[in-house]
Amino acid sequence: xxxxxxxxxxxxxxxxxxxxxxxxxxxxxxxxxxxxxxxxxxxxxxxxxxxxxxxxxxxxxxxxxxxxxxxxxxxxxxxxxxxxxxxxxxxxxxxxxxxxxxxxxxxxxxxxxxxxxxxxxxxxxxxxxxxxxxxxxxxxxxx
Length: 143
Hints:
It is elongated, with a radius of gyration of 19 Å. The chain is mostly helical. It is built from six helices and two strands, in the order ααααββαα. It has a single domain, classed as Arc Repressor Mutant, subunit A, CATH 1.10.10. The protein has helices at residues 8-30, 35-46, 51-58, 62-74, 96-118, 122-140; strands at 78-82, 90-94. Strands 1-2 form a two-stranded antiparallel ribbon.
């Protein structure tokens, strides 16, 4: 086993990982959503996806994903529609009102992060990015 020692950088990274684990459930509570429902909306922020892909990305069964989409649809947060190129398939998209609500909870954090980011020089940002990408690779080793 490799030796390692706790450093201030590693302690800060560990604290960030713990805080980020708590952020999703906190936002879900504020939005009166289940944690998995919020995770589904976060995936839909990027682009519409099919129910099977949603299930795969959430790590749930297709039946569970259908229930998630049903709940989100009932709340006006998501809608099903025919796939853009294959009318036999369905895709799920986030509604504009859900996008506005979810981003409303996240924008203060994004703005604070952008402020921190802007406080670094281009050279410092390269070092920070290299560190974060290395940290992501380390976490991926246990996934």
